[in-house]
Amino acid sequence: MMGRDYALYFFAALGSFLVVYIVLPIVTIFAKQALDFEMLVKTVHDPLVLEALRNSLLTATATALISLFFGVPLGYILARKDFRGKNFVQAIIDVPVVIPHSVVGIMLLVTFSNAILDSYKGIIAAMLFVSAPFAINSARDGFLAVDEKLEHVARTLGASRIRTFFSISLPMALPSIASGGIMAWARSMSEVGAILIVAYYPKTAQILVMEYFNNYGLRASRPISVMLMLISLSIFVFLRWLIGRVRE
Amino acid sequence: MLKVESISKDYREFKLREISFDVREGEHFIILGPSGSGKTVLLEIIAGIISPDRGRILLRGEDITGLPPEKRNFSYIPQNYALFPHMTVFDNIAFGLKLRKIPRKEVARKVREVAESLGIDHLLHRKPRTLSGGEQQRVAIARALVVKPELLLMDEPFANLDVQTKSKLIREMKRWRKEFGFTAIHVTHSFEEALSLGDRVGIMLRGRLVQVGDVRDVFSKPKSEEVARFLGFENIIEGVANGRILKVGDLRIELPREVWGKVRVGIRPEDITIFMEGVKTSARNVFKARVEGIEDLGALVKLTLNLGGIILRAFITRSSLIELGIREGEEVYASFKASAIHVFP
Questions:
Q1: Which one, A29, A117, A204, B248, has the greatest CB density within 10 A?
Q2: pTM given for the model
Q3: The CATH number of the domain where A127 resides is what?
């Protein structure tokens, strides 16, 4: 054996700072809420909270499906075709990541104004803008990982391009596409900035957390935060696990 | 049956130039060339996967250049076999049949039939990644043959297999050909495959098809120095083997192993030694030969020898040429060890 690899220990020590930094607030908020159980029970029975949670889950799910519906075909084109301006299209897809989300809200409102103002459409519009890149890029990576020769063989055996897509490319890229859908869903659930500007109503849980904090303070906003996190995390973890099993 | 007319194509680093040849019904046509010569691109143009910049492809006189792959009824087996990893072996083989709207019972029967012929009927429920290389290749061939294609397009079908599996599959390929009666275009860099399976061969070098013809003719009479250098094996003899003896005209050549029937053997020019008088050694093939040509290659000299009608080329050093005093038209003895003979199965 060689001597101890101190460099790796050093890196591990530095790296664990970030892991602890992410885990610590999550554990803390759950722990503190556990001590204040009464408030949690009260919140669970608050119809306003339940309504907001329902709104969040519905809009995020709708957004994930819409981003897949449009993102999967786009991902396929990006994976399979070379065309002029492809780099430009790829850059546009990544733009939402760099725009501050409040600015996204302003842009959407300037562009679509009353059509999306304070409506479910508005929530979904805001979510779609910030989450679509996840769906598109995962779909593209999924299709890139499918050997093009498989499609060629399917074609020579008599399958049209569309038939080949549905019987070969799509099933093989499905785990990657699904994980893109989950990321889009998770990104939608965590969106606040753009929704705040475009559609304060109908009220979503993310917005409600902020409203309770502004109006009633930390103690009132904490239980909703915990519930929102519990739901998001468990769905996220469950879906990831499901994909992992399918991949096996 | 298939006519390829002046196909040209620039594709990535490959440049195909003015490629023309034709394939006859029931023929096993080999496209032989080193890697990077553009063989795969040519095959994919014929399959309809890549469209050519110029030129036409005719199937029984009908122009199919613009047809998509699914309308050509050619089966394509890429070098990596491209088995569908998410389907069982059964579903892989059944893929083309299902697309042809054949009733399910009929599909199952046909799959079983072809799987039996190829010796893979015990693997039908398995997923491709659990199979060995040789088994995967059989599945790919079964999937291609079951749809009764007009043309079977094979890209380096044996390149990824170990030597034993390879020679076994080559032998079986001949049997399957009799059984299914397919016409094939087979792309390879292996002389062994060309000589064992090919009826005719096209030599492809740097994007051009430089010589097309009968396998034996191309190997024995390369049209250009380029082809000759690529083929390396200059002495290809065809004869009828009976155990360890190969009969070629009046000659009896001792072989390194037992073979029966029509075979081709190759001897490298550097493996032939020249004597002025016949020496009797049991382990050697010794034949009287007439020197028909002497070609100076620098340190080496290439002799063209006539062994009772069979032309062999031999390399000797310049000093032994002088020592032996060999001149054109003279009678010498050519000898080569049985172990220096390469038998093409």
A1: A204
A2: 0.81
A3: 1.10.3720.10
Domain that holds residue A14: 1-35
- Same domain for A21 and A61, yes or no, is no
Tell me whether residue A41 is in a domain: no
Q: Are residues A22 and A80 in the same domain?
A: no
* Cross-chain residue pair A156–B76, CB shorter than 8 Å: yes
Strand residue runs (E) in chain A: none
Within a domain: A42:
no
ipTM of the complex: 0.83
Per residue in A153-163, pLDDT (tens digit) is 999 999 999 99
Question: How many whole angstroms separate alpha carbon A143 and alpha carbon A80?
Answer: 8
Q: Which residues of A are less than 8 Å from B84 in CB distance?
A: 150, 154, 168
**Residue at A209 is within a domain:** yes
Write the residue in B80, B86, B100 that is nearest to A171 by C-beta. B86
Q: What dotted CATH number matches B263-343?
A: 2.40.50.100
Nearest-5° Cα angle at A97, A95 to A98:
75
pLDDT tens digits, B53-78: 999 999 999 999 999 999 999 999 99
What residues of chain B lie within 8 A of the CB of A160, using their CB? 68, 70
Kindly tell me the number of DSSP H helices and DSSP E strands found in chain B: 9, 18
Report the topology of domain B2-229.
Rossmann fold (3.40.50)
Q: With an 8 Å Cβ cutoff, are B69 and A149 in contact?
A: no
Residues A177 and A81 in one domain: yes
For chain B, give the mean pLDDT: 90
Say whether A173 sits in a helix, a strand or coil: helix
Whether the Cβ atoms of residue B84 and residue B40 lie closer than 8 Å to each other: no
> Does B37 show up as a binding residue in the annotation?
yes
Shortest distance between the Cα of B71 and any Cα of chain A, in A, equals 7
User: How many structural domains does chain A have?
Assistant: 2
> By C-alpha distance, which of A128, A141, A125, A126 is closest to A90?
A141
Question: pLDDT (tens digit, 9 = 90+) per residue, B89-117?
Answer: 999 999 999 999 999 999 999 999 999 99
